[in-house]
Amino acid sequence: MNALRYLKSRKVQAGLALVAVLLAVALWPESVPADLAPVARGPLMVTVDEEGETRVRERFVISAPVPGLVLRIELEPGDPVKKGLSLATVRPAPPALLDSRSRAEAEAAEQAAAAAVGQARAQNKRAEPAAALARAELERTRDLFTRGILAQQALDESEAQARSAVEALRAAEFAVATAEHQLEMARARLVQATGGAGSGRPIELRSPIDGVVFKRLRESESIVAPGEPLLEVGDPARLEIVSDLLSTDAVRVRPGASVLIEQWGGDRPLRGRVRLVEPSGFMKISALGVEEQRVNVIVDFEDPADARKALGDGYRVEVRIVIWEGRDVVKVPTSSLVRQGEGWAVFAADSGRARLRPIELGMRNALEAEVRSGLEAGQQVVTHPSDALADGTRLAARSR
Fold it and tell me: Which CATH number characterizes residue 363's domain?
């Protein structure tokens, strides 16, 4: 009997133990599957991203200086031209007699064009020594940087000043070419209008620069009015990018900011730098029909022309304008951030459990955020935390 009672007691104890195990298993908190990412230390870049369009910086419109007959233009878009090359020929119509007022206006226009030539040449002469000085200063800065005397920032500033001086010289040279072209047209109009010697001779319209033909606005022989455009020429190596930013983004951009140029068709991004943020904005209707205030930002290429020779006028690109950059910061994926009151927090993985950690954020972009306090490099955080996650929840890391 004692043995039978003992066996029954053991069975009851075993049953109770089994029930306890089943209850423990049923009540044991399940682990929540989670994706983990490390808290890293490294560079972080904050950019303003927008589409842009290339355009030639100096575009010359070749127009008829006087009324008459323009002969057939054989040049086609893409044809190279040299400075002084004849682009089109206009046979002037018989001159009409002008009154004294119109004659005085024509003479004043010729004098103003001559003065503009003198002014452009003077600016060019001032730009030449400034460019030479900037190049010499850049060489000295590079030498001091190589010897470890100056920092990288000093070299970057010297390179930027040298580029600015060279661009100013090029702009002055193009200004001279433009002014000389305008003077030639003004003289032709004056001769034709006053009926002076040579007023009936054909007028050769010549290229003011070395470049290519962008547009041919007239092809066949036809009668033209004064000022009617015939051709557009420019230098394709003198490209820039114009990007219209939202005004709220444009206020964060400064001239001299570094730019990454992507999605242009090449196998690597190109480098650029902001030259100008235009002071006046304009309204633009978005694809969704929303009125937006936009501001044009002008970007210069820093890469040599050979690196972007496939680009032409009016090509689409994407620009990433750098407004802040850190070289050694603690950062987390933005997908790990969760709101905690007025601040931010993350779920950090600690011994297989999720721990809600409040953090202080710094700068951030679409993918990463700077952590100023609350985390250290090497820890792991949960990305895309679900609603099932809470402080102390067990984690089951997903395999990648």
Answer: 2.40.420.20
Q: Are 369 and 25 in contact (CB under 8 A)?
A: no
Contacts of 258 (CB under 8 A, 6+ apart): 271, 272, 273, 321, 322, 325
pLDDT at 98: 52
CA 287 vs. chain centroid, Å, equals 21
What is the reported pTM?
0.67
β-bridge partners, 243: 297
Separation of alpha carbons 333 and 65, rounded Å = 63
Pick from 244, 239, 240, 241: which is nearest to 50 by CA? 244
Mean pLDDT of the chain: 83
Same domain, 212 and 87: yes
Q: Which of 46, 180, 60 has the alpha carbon at shortest distance from 114?
A: 180
- Encoded tokens for 188: 């032709």
When comparing pLDDT for 303 and 100, which is higher?
Answer: 303
Same-domain check for residues 193 and 119 = yes
Tokens of 334: 């933005």
Going by C-alpha positions, the residue among 189, 38, 171, 55 that lies closest to residue 113 is 189
CA pair distance 241, 316, nearest whole angstrom: 9
Closest CA to 222 of 65, 66, 68, 62: 68
